[in-house]
Here is the input.
Amino acid sequence: MTTILIVDDDELFRTMLEAMLRKEGHQVLSAVNGSEALALLESQSPDLIMTDILMPDGDGIELITALNQQQRDIPIVAMSGGRRTISLEFNLESAALMGVKATLPKPFTRDSLRQVLADALQG
Here is the structure.
């Protein structure tokens, strides 16, 4: 069973994604921001991390940077819906430049989620 850590400050979205992943047979951990995710990673070792980019108290870019500095070899999927002043394309391109395994624009379909997870977990 694959364990996936979801990092997203939007409670409704996080709950929906948790349900989708559990229905697909995954074990799910969750954190509301990058700081909470880093604390959780001290005791947990997920197979994959799915992180939003824009969050208060430790955004996705800070989380990706910290994981790169720690040389943690956990595949990361960056997600973003953008904001008024920053486009989702900019957010996802920034994450891709930092070496994430995949990017996923919000909103997304169950099929695109399955494909991104398959690609990211391939190695």
In short: Residues 3-121 form a domain with the Rossmann fold fold (CATH 3.40.50.2300). The chain has a mean pLDDT of 91. The chain has one domain: 3-121.
